[in-house]
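Entry 0007
Protein: Cation/H+ exchanger transmembrane domain-containing protein
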Amino acid sequence: MWHQLEPTQAHIAYVLIGAVSVIFSLVSLVFKEQLFIGEAIVGTFFGSVVGPHVLNWFNPSRWTDNVDNLTFELSRLILVIQLFATGAELPPKYIWKHIRSLNLVLFGAMIYGWLILSLFVWLIFRSVGLNFSDSLLVGSTFVATDPVLAAAIVGKSKFAERIRADVRNLIQAESGSNDGLAFPFVTLSINLILNRPDNIHAGEIVKDWVLVGILYQCAFGILFGVVIGSLGRYSYLFTRSHRWIDNESSLVFYIGLSLIITGLASILGCDDLLASFAAGCAYSWGGQIDFELQPSGDDHTDSEPLRFSSVVDLLLNTAYFVYVGSILPWNEFSPYASELVALGVVFVFLSRIPAMLFLQHITPDIRDWKDALFIGHFGPRGVGSIFCCLLAKHLLETRSSDPSSHETLLKVMWPITTFIVVISVVVHGFSICCFTVYSTAVKVRIERQITSESMEPVEPTDKPKSSTRRRMSKLRVVQPTTDDPDFPKYAYVSRTKVILVNHHGDVIKEFENKHGSVGVASRLVAFREGNQIVIEGNGSEIKRYDLESVA
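Output (structure tokens):
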């Protein structure tokens, strides 16, 4: 009678992923703006509970005989979409303008983190049979910080509004760049493991690594990404200027361009992750042109535009971390429990923070030790580490003439990497909440000490029309220590305009919003960049105003 009730594993997976997405969406403001917890923690916890180690409702090993390959391709898909978005959301020409700071933080943190974590992996796990070359390969899986988890810091939560724009942009650019740049660390470690036992000269190993790993995979990957991203930008601008494309098709364009990049780059054998990030940077090189869905109605006066890309990211990231939670090898953690805990402590305190504290003195975008400590702490590991680990396992199994000789390395690499990912998801996820509670308490105390000014909003006497006001965000401009009657008190930001209003409510200046038009003429324009209003003239920055939200 009930023979038609034969649910498959795919049907159960749809229900579970849909359920956690719906539940998280219904209480998303509670998680994101009160608890400051993103979808990664929720998805990982939910996946662990419904996975094979607890309820056994969501078990990817029943779907395929090769779970590693499925995980590898899912990780690639999430990364290329997220990396393209990361590059596209950076300020115009950010990489070129901040190349010194980015290079110092990027390569300084990557090289230091690779060496220090590899050293401790060797010290902690040499008792199980790992040599130093093996440890270098394990350490290379921790080189890349994760753009998915970093998104909770740089722009996908209210916490991001409390961070200076230059610090957020630096974290965002680093998390996008180093996923692709982790490839050379993996390939160099593989070459050392496979070739040194055969007494191949070190010069041959380095030459092969430079020619293939650096010049072809990375340099050509960047060039390829820039070309595709530029073509995508000009194509999109051309069709939009002729009104040939709508918002719905813009979403398809956004996703499709990411897939084209990773497909072609993989076929050519170059670094598809680095190509995706480079394409995103090229896509927004002359100004961000992300498509938006503006809220309408009087109930959304102060609402921010709803970005299609954020909706796609939220859905994909939630589903992915549910999947990750279900494949975590909890039973493989127990034989190395003490070693993994020791490595986790090293990861949290030594993998980035000492390097950032040292680099603060020579990095223009890091102003003091507090910036260095913040950037050093928020280096989460997630999708990129899982991707690099599976890539390393694949290269080791396919290129080695005797994979059984690396049995110990292949056995411990996956539990070590996934344990560090779990530590990172928990520590960096809940760190946002701790930082926010502390900064909120300090802010309230300081405001009560230095000002008695009423915080009630002042309405401008020269208001914009109601049809425009409905689509504008009202933000308070942070006053300097000495009150200036000509200093703007509020900024009204819409898709097309930025209006600055003084403390009397009079309009001081009205600008065209640089982000609201396809082309920007050679005149004064303004745009919002995180928690700042930036005013430009002839493409050069003239002034910045710090902002805070109006309660």
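Curator remark: The chain is about 60% helix and 10% strand. The chain has a mean pLDDT of 81.
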